[in-house]
């Protein structure tokens, strides 16, 4: 049983490492930020699985704090990038790559689909 | 089971090192910041593997709630300072002449002259190759030296038996809280002084400006904040309470409450929260002053300076922790806001 | 030398490597934000060495080392926040977030002439 939990936690860790590709490649800052949010969710999963596997009930509190506060960075980001960026102020390395998609710059941000 | 855990540890360490490496090698500051947030998450998991749930809690509250928002807002402020005309639709403004004549091999300047490099504030050129190997030699040599020391050092039981033997006089049931607030109370007092000093330092830099932002219209942000704030406050108070018998305590609670305060200031569209400066000053210093006052009282009523009479230890520790939580939370929010309130200069 | 690879044996080595990585970044990168991140990574390496040594052996981990690390994290985050405030202030005065050799030149008001 514990072996299963640890294996599952390891699998989630591997998904985080694969997700890093999106952070490294981008291309937009929205992609990077959303990946970090996804990592937060995987991290909560890892903490809960380890908490049961290693019999450390305090890890539930750690997971709670993570789940609660992961949103703060997202709010800090959305506040500044919630609307499409005006032309000429790219947030990322390679503005040329991104320009065709610019109107939908952060299509995944929740503030869009109001 | 053990093999699976060992594999987990190895993957986690490899991930930590890889993320730190890419973070520091990044030419895009935003990417570096996101990688650093990821680094904090992996670090919290590493602390869990090292049987340190207290540290993992602190890392979770700091890494997720405070550092990320602080770094993102700092990047935004830098961008605002260096490209003051952003927000006007149109071609990007000409680079600041000062930024580009600062000359020589300076990374910023090269970016400013290169029209394709995008934003001056948010990218920086890769470091020139000169001196690469000496830097690698210095840091690598130091790492090898450290590892050699670690490999040869034999380990005794540490201070764990001593702490366990004195738990009954500490007033609390959790070892780390006993160390922090009773056995080594000096450390915690100086830690509070350090937090206070950082806050005063930020205030000494002048008034704060409103956070640069294009506020997102719509009900999502205020609605989310309205739901999250009460939960965050309850969690913070719970952690403060839990500190006496389980992982938790003043700093973790202060960090969670500080993150709640940061969330609140982020949710305001154009201004920052602006409490009465006198109340704010009292709140920021309360933790350290209360601790010091009770510590001095311990000199006369208890065994020694910064120690507590055995039967009063628990209530005193709870009072000190409450004050410390309040001060830490307020100071973290003040550091996030980044300056004095405009009302103080009026 | 290494009897078994329990976390208390494995992680201090990772901490040493993290410290070296952060030091390398601190030496090599010039943008102040990256330098602040580098110092933080160095600090994390130190914490990892500390906690790893505290967790060695079969006994419960050493609470004194953990308490010291907690204090260290608090100090690190305060120092980081203050350093970021200083960086913003420097950028406001000079127009860039890099420490350059020579006297500080502000871009508004009386700028001292180049030597």
Give an overview of the whole structure.
The complex is a heterotrimer of chains A (114), B (346) and C (115). Chain A contains four helices and no strands. Chain A has 114 residues and is mostly helical. The C terminus of chain A is likely disordered. Chain B has two domains: 116 residues, no CATH class; 180 residues, no CATH class. In chain B, helix 11 packs antiparallel against helix 12. Chain C has 115 residues and is mainly alpha-helical. Chain C contains three helices and no strands. In chain C, helix 1 packs antiparallel against helix 2 and helix 2 packs antiparallel against helix 3. Chains in contact: A-B, B-C. At the B-C interface, helix 1, helix 2, helix 3, helix 5 and helix 6 of B face helix 1, helix 2 and helix 3 of C.
In short:
With 114 residues, chain A is mainly α. Chain A is built from four helices and no strands.
Task: Give the rounded overall mean pLDDT of chain A.
Answer: 74
Order of helices and strands of chain B: HHHHHHHHHHHHHHH
Structural class of chain A: mainly alpha
Beta-strand percent range of chain B: under 5%
Structural class of chain B: mainly alpha
**Uncertain parts of chain A:** 85-114
The helix content of chain A is 55-70%
- The number of domains of chain A is 1
Give the largest chain-chain interface (CB within 8 Å). B-C, 103 and 80 residues
Average of pLDDT of chain B: 79
What is the number of helical segments of chain A per DSSP (H or I, 4+ residues)?
4
Q: Give the topology string of chain A: H per helix, E per strand.
A: HHHH
Main sheet summary of chain B: none
The fraction of residues in strands of chain A falls at: under 5%
Task: Give short descriptive properties of this protein.
heterotrimer, A: 114 residues, mainly alpha, 4 helices, flat, disordered C terminus, C: 115 residues, Helix Hairpins, 3 helices, elongated, sodium:proton antiporter activity (chain A), Multiple resistance and pH regulation protein F (chain A), transmembrane helix (chain A)
Task: Walk me through the topology.
The complex is a heterotrimer of chains A (114), B (346) and C (115).
Chain A: H1 2-25, H2 29-53, H3 59-81, H4 95-98
Helix pairs in contact in A: 1-2, 2-3
Chain B: H1 2-25, H2 29-49, H3 53-82, H4 97-101, H5 107-113, H6 132-152, H7 160-165, H8 167-170, H9 175-183, H10 185-204, H11 220-242, H12 250-267, H13 277-301, H14 313-337, H15 342-345
Chain C: H1 7-28, H2 32-54, H3 63-94
Helix pairs in contact in C: 1-2, 2-3
């Amino acid at each position: 049983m514990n072996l299963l939990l640890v294996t599952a936690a390891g699998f989630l860790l591997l998904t985080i490492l694969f997700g890093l590709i999106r952070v490294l490649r981008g291309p937009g800052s929205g992609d990077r930020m959303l990946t970090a949010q996804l990592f937060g969710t995987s991290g909560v999963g890892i903490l809960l699985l380890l908490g049961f596997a290693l019999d450390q009930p305090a890890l539930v509190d750690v997971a709670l704090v993570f789940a609660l506060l992961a949103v703060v960075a997202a709010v800090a980001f959305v506040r500044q990038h919630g609307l499409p960026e005006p032309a000429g102020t790219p947030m990322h390395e390679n503005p040329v790559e991104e320009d065709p998609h610019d109107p939908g710059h952060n299509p995944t941000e929740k503030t869009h689909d109001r | 089971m053990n093999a699976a855990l060992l594999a987990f540890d190895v993957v986690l360490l490899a991930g930590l090192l890889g993320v730190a490496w890419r973070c520091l090698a990044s030419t895009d500051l935003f990417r570096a910041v996101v990688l650093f947030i990821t680094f904090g998450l992996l670090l919290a998991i590493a602390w869990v593997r090292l049987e340190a749930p207290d540290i993992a809690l602190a890392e979770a509250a700091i890494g997720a709630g405070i550092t990320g928002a602080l770094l993102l807002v700092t990047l935004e402020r830098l961008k605002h300072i260096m490209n003051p005309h952003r927000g006007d639709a149109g071609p990007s403004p000409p680079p600041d002449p000062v930024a580009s004549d600062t000359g020589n091999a300076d990374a910023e300047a090269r970016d400013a002259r290169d029209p394709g490099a995008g934003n001056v504030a948010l990218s920086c050129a890769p470091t020139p190759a000169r001196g690469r190997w000496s830097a690698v030699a210095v840091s690598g040599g130091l790492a090898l030296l450290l590892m050699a020391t670690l490999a040869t050092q034999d380990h005794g039981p540490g201070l764990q038996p001593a702490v366990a033997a004195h738990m009954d006089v500490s007033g609390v049931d959790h070892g780390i809280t006993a160390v922090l607030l009773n056995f080594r109370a000096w450390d915690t007092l100086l830690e509070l002084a350090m937090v206070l000093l950082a806050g005063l330092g930020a205030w000494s830099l002048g008034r704060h400006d409103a956070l640069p932002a294009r506020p997102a219209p719509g009900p999502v942000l205020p609605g989310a904040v309205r739901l999250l704030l009460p939960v965050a406050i309850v969690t913070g108070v719970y952690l403060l309470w839990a500190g006496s018998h389980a992982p938790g305590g003043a700093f973790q609670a202060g960090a969670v409450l500080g993150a709640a305060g940061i969330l609140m200031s982020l949710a305001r569209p154009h201004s920052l929260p602006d409490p009465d400066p006198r109340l704010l000053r009292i709140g920021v210093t309360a933790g350290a002053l209360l601790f010091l006052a009770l510590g001095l009282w311990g000199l006369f009523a208890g065994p020694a300076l910064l120690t507590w009479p055995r039967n009063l230890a628990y209530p005193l520790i709870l009072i000190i922790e409450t004050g410390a939580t309040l001060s830490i939370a307020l100071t973290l929010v003040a550091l996030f806001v980044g300056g004095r309130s405009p009302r103080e200069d009026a | 030398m290494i009897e078994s690879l329990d976390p208390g044996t494995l992680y201090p080595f990772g901490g040493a490597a993290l410290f070296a990585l952060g030091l390398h970044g601190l030496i090599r990168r010039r943008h102040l934000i990256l330098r602040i991140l580098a110092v933080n990574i160095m600090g994390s390496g130190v914490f990892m060495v500390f906690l790893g040594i505290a967790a060695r052996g079969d006994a419960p981990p050493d609470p004194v080392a953990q308490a010291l690390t907690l204090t260290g994290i608090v100090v690190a985050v305060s120092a980081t926040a203050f350093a970021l405030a200083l960086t913003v202030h420097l950028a406001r005065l000079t127009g860039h977030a890099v420490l350059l050799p020579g006297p500080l030149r502000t871009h508004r008001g009386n700028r001292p002439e180049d030597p």
